[in-house]
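call fold(seq) -> tokens
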Amino acid sequence: MIRSSIVIISVLAGTAATAASFGCEKATAPDEKAICADRGLNDADVKMTTMFDMELHLVAMGERDTLHSTQKAWLDKRSKCKGDITCLRTAYDQRLKDLQKVFADIISRGPF
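ret:
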């Protein structure tokens, strides 16, 4: 039991350093550097990317272009935050809320 817990913790600890969706070792933009330097933003980026990827597979084919367009617009908005942590947190909070609405809409069409 203890051994499996140590393995799980080791795996999670190893992925945390490279958790951002865009690869921190190649980050050059101020917003990307800020996300890599802040654990909360890094986690928000991973959550946002996971939700986006899931929804991309769940929405109807005709809705995928819209989802891609809103993601691109959001990434443009995020980049305008530069290294401003408060701005980035606000941007992620809003994007996560928007993606949660998409997910709720998908679920409302159930059952699956």
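DSSP finds five helices and no strands in the chain.
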